[in-house]
């Protein structure tokens, strides 16, 4: 689900859900940045690249194979966006944050660059899987700013890494186990700038349909100002009752 928000005149977020030749599941959110409409170009290039690569990819059965594939694909994506920006004056300096997850029945692998996030809701509550590549998060980690004050810091949207802004980028990639009923949230900072982790957990924990859950998140972000584009993907680990195979 994506929403322009209440202030921006266009939406620079992109997202997608794709399956490879073996039916494996990949989801991505990209939050573009740059000059006039250049953010749209960067985020859409990221989505197109990952879709093309994933849909022609064979099965990746282990976390290490998924992690290697994601790291290599993001490196290629970064180079393509960087080269495009260098070749087109209107796209100079453009880039995009990304958060990607590949889901299997036993584990999910997450890769990210920037401040788009992945959360996991399970029996232990809601946890943030990714760690923002942002100036404010660096200040929090160094003890210069409290986590509470970070939400209102004037430079809270300054990212330290993005795809396409430099010739090389190194994503964070990790794999975690998950179980039936667990719920993943991928989102751009248009959501997390407005909703606290406690608010996200309360909405996700209601047990409503994923469509209703996502819409409530977007409505809440807009009601709290909606200054940015808002995009999210919800993924629930489920078990098919027909053949007994675990899917997501």
Q: Give the biggest beta sheet.
A: 5 strands, antiparallel
What kind of assembly state do the chains in view correspond to?
single chain
Mean pLDDT: 92
pLDDT under 50 segments (min length 5)? 241-246
**Elements, N to C (H/E):** EEEHHEEEEHHEEHHHEEE
Structural class: alpha+beta
Distance between the termini: 18 Å
- The order of strands across the largest sheet is 1-10-9-6-7
How is this fold's topology laid out?
Blueprint: E1 2-3, E2 13-19, E3 25-33, H1 38-55, H2 63-87, E4 95-103, E5 107-113, E6 117-122, E7 125-128, H3 135-141, H4 147-150, E8 172-177, E9 183-187, H5 189-192, H6 197-204, H7 210-223, E10 230-236, E11 238-239, E12 246-247
Antiparallel strand pairs: 1-10, 2-3, 3-4, 4-5, 5-8, 6-7, 6-9, 9-10, 11-12
Helix pairs in contact: 1-2
Textual characterization of the structure:
The protein contains seven helices and twelve strands. It is an alpha+beta fold and 248 residues long. The strands form three sheets. A five-stranded antiparallel β-sheet has the order 1-10-9-6-7. A five-stranded antiparallel β-sheet has the order 2-3-4-5-8, covered by helices on one side. A hairpin with a 6-residue loop joins strand 11 and strand 12.
Key features of this structure:
single chain, five-stranded antiparallel β-sheet, 32% helix, 27% strand, disordered C terminus
How is this structure best summarized?
By secondary structure, the chain is an alpha+beta fold.
